[in-house]
Design a protein that fits this description.
mainly alpha; about 475 residues; about 60% helix; two-stranded antiparallel ribbon; 6 strands
Length: about 475
């Protein structure tokens, strides 16, 4: 039997005088996973609409712009009806098997390629997730394999012809996989952890509405515990953020360049620019893979259909539109047009990368000589907001660089059709929406400090314009 404290009965009354306790000083403990009350995307209707319309729009881009034509007239109902292949054309078993093998390859490379493990930002439960940083090495291995096949067997190899012949089926395979993945992470978010506690949910994805939470993402960091690697947590969201879509985007572009060579006996300067610009962007993202750990996608948003479809389908199959167009509609630019487009790309990249590098360096090593001189606003939340340098010109100056690069990716396609400029318009809407989300969340987080920050840094994205 445990021993009792003999002095307990005497000490207890003197220890705390209940009458002297001011209950106004006691702050209620906030729940770990509070109910979501603020909705984005216009709530349930908007979430359902985006879930249904984004896959439809991905198919629409394919039928409107392909090897036979690429014009707005292709979007007419009669034209679309004549192009629809039926279910047998949409659901391609060979494409589904190929897409599953693609994921199998990426998972094997994630396991076997050595790399350091990095801690993410501190979560609201005080923990830090662990991430394996071998995305860049995976990219190098995959692209090296593809280039090796190209050099050894030529552009007519099945690795390249399969993409062109089964492209529609690959879209369907990716759509099905992204939906299945979203269903899995939503359902698993209700399974308690081994110690009986609750999983950490996204603050914006715990509304209790199935449609909305499925779309926005309920669990913050869904993971898989692989039985053969019990000590290596597999973070689904971080893996999907850069690998299956970003690397596939580059692989598709190379396949389209190979198709252009097979069809026309040459690769145009416009195709080279698109492949180099977009490949550079993807390579840069994977080289700076650790930087993604501080983005809203990782730290704030849950992983649901929005990110699953965006990462797996939207990025590779819509962002590769320019290369796919040029594969069957070649454009010759010449030296001066090429040089001008290169200048646009370099300007956008310089703004984008130098601004992000400045922010990440200041956040991680504020005493570094490159950022130690920067002025900042110290918030009551404990963080510091930069008010000079790149971030003194606009609160989201990196978005400007990103959008300028979008123009450089589309300009090589010429001006025969506006469809290839879809990315410029879409990306502008995306960046404006993201900027509004950032502003709203920062306003809630920093309160009056954010108002002062907006007074010091007036412009949102484009200095002296917006």
């Amino acid at each position: 039997m445990p021993r009792k404290n003999a002095n307990a009965s005497k000490a207890t009354p003197a220890a705390v005088d209940a009458k002297k306790v001011d209950t106004r000083d006691i702050k209620p403990v906030e729940p770990l996973n509070p109910k979501t009350t603020h909705y984005e995307f216009a709530g349930t209707i908007g979430a359902l609409g985006v879930t249904l319309l984004t896959p439809a729009f991905t198919y629409l881009l394919y039928f409107a712009c392909n090897e036979t034509s690429c014009s707005l007239s292709s979007l007419s109902l009669s034209s679309l009806q004549s192009r629809l292949p039926g279910w047998t054309g949409l659901v391609d078993p060979e494409a589904i098997r190929a897409y599953l093998k693609w994921w199998q390859l990426l998972l094997i490379l994630w396991v076997v390629i050595p790399a350091p493990w990095v801690e993410g930002t501190e979560l609201r439960d005080g923990t830090r997730a662990q991430y394996k940083m071998n995305g860049f090495r995976t990219f190098v291995v995959v692209i090296a394999m593809q280039v090796g096949v190209l050099l050894w067997y030529g552009p007519g190899h099945v690795v390249f012809t399969f993409v062109w012949e089964h492209y529609l089926g690959l879209i369907t395979a990716a759509c099905l996989f992204s939906f299945a993945l979203a269903v899995h992470v939503y359902a698993s978010s209700y399974i308690p952890v081994k110690n009986g506690g609750s999983k950490l949910l996204a603050l914006g994805g715990n509304s209790g509405n199935v449609i909305y939470d499925f779309f926005i993402g309920r669990e913050l960091n869904p993971t898989l515990n692989l039985p053969f690697l019990p000590d290596q947590p597999f973070d689904i969201k971080q893996f999907a953020e850069l690998r299956p879509g970003i690397i596939l985007w580059v692989a598709l572009n190379i396949a389209f360049a190979a198709h252009q060579f097979v069809e026309f006996g040459r690769v145009t300067d416009s195709m080279v620019l698109v492949c180099v610009f977009q490949g550079w962007y993807c390579l840069d993202s994977l080289w700076n893979e650790e930087a993604v750990l501080t983005t809203m996608d990782i730290t704030t948003d849950g992983f649901g259909f929005m990110l699953s479809f965006g990462d797996l389908v939207w990025v590779p199959f819509t962002y590769s539109l320019q290369a796919r167009y040029l594969a069957s509609h070649p454009v010759d630019l010449g030296l001066w047009k090429s040089a001008t487009i290169v200048a646009v790309q370099l300007a956008g990249y310089y703004i984008f990368r130098s601004a992000n590098t400045q922010k990440n360096t200041f956040r991680n090593t504020p005493t570094h000589p490159s950022v130690s001189h920067l002025a900042y606003l110290q918030t009551s939340y404990g963080t510091r907001l930069i008010t000079s340098g790149w971030w003194g010109t606009a609160r989201h100056i990196n978005y400007l660089g990103d959008w300028i690069m979008a123009w450089a990716w589309c300009l090589p396609t010429g001006f025969a059709t506006p469809i290839t400029y879809f990315y410029v318009g879409f990306f502008a809407v995306l960046l404006l929406h993201r900027e509004r989300r950032d502003e709203e969340k920062c306003g809630r987080k920093y309160g009056k400090d954010w108002e002062e920050y907006k007074r010091r840094v007036r412009w949102r994205i484009v200095p002296y314009v917006y």
